[in-house]
Amino acid sequence: MKTVGYVLRMKGYDIHSIEPEASMYDAIEKMADKGVGALLVIDSGEFVGIITERDYARKVILRGRSSKETAVREIMTTNVLYVSPNYSIEECMELMTVKHIRHLPVMSSNKLVGVISQGDLVKAIISDQKSVIKRLENYILENAKLT
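Below the sequence we write its predicted structure tokens.
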């Protein structure tokens, strides 16, 4: 069973973050530049929350707020669920499905070490399935030669 640690080794340990005093405009601009749907909010080196495109759509746009005048701290999620590198992919998928979230920060020894998304988990599952299929094909071919 593959783990979050495996997923991070595949995708990398990059952490895209923003400060809580930054504007939502800056946050959305950074998400677009990095090609991500969420930023971790870091204040003086401490992980304090997460901000997502969904937060922006629901808490800024739909409420008629200004992107340039709304600070990240005003709409970020502060009670953030996180996992450790030893969580299984299946545990994370279940947690994300039940809690309706798309991103999970990864903590190890109270230190932020990465973030995973549903897309990262799906890629890992597909990669694992391709590997299983390839092994089964090789097994079938080898056994067909023996008969």
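The helical segments are 4-11, 24-34, 53-61, 72-75, 89-99, 118-146.
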